[in-house]
Amino acid sequence: MREELPKSQWAALIPHQGAMCLLDSVAHWDDARIHARSGSHAREDNPLRRDGRLRALHLCEYGAQAMAVHGGLLAQAAGGRAAPGLLVSLRAVQLSREYVDDLPGLVDVHAERLLAAADSWQYAFRVEYRGELLAQGRAAVMVRP
After folding, report:
1. Which residues of the chain have pLDDT under 70?
2. Quick one: which of 29, 66, 62 has its CA closest to 43?
3. Domains in the chain and their CATH numbers?
4. Which of 3, 27, 93, 116 fits a disulfide with 137 by CB distance 3.0 to 4.6 angstroms?
5. Tens digits of residue pLDDT in 95-115
6. What is the per-residue pLDDT for 82?
7. What is the pTM for the complete model shown?
């Protein structure tokens, strides 16, 4: 298991840049899973906010970004770079509240790789706040050569 990584050590591995890079740090990761943290849900400059609020549905993007970071870290550890991917489906998404922008502090973003083929990835993700499950689901990404 690899331990805490600040954003500066992984941000260049993913296409999400600037305020759209929603994760703040990687708490730990291994070959199958990643645990990231973020406080961007409460930031006024979060680009996903509408009318000053952030819907819990947008936590799916947090899960997808954790997947991207995980893929980038795995590729980097193998001496390469992850191919770009396109999020093609979300399944079994469950949300426990409508909005999340009023939660102070950090959320924990977990993603677990279920399948890694040459042309696709599948992950399960969950986002928690102080032990409360905010969102969970599965996501599939098609890898572009």
Report:
1. 1
2. 62
3. 2-143 (3.10.129.10)
4. 93
5. 999 999 999 999 999 999 999
6. 87
7. 0.95
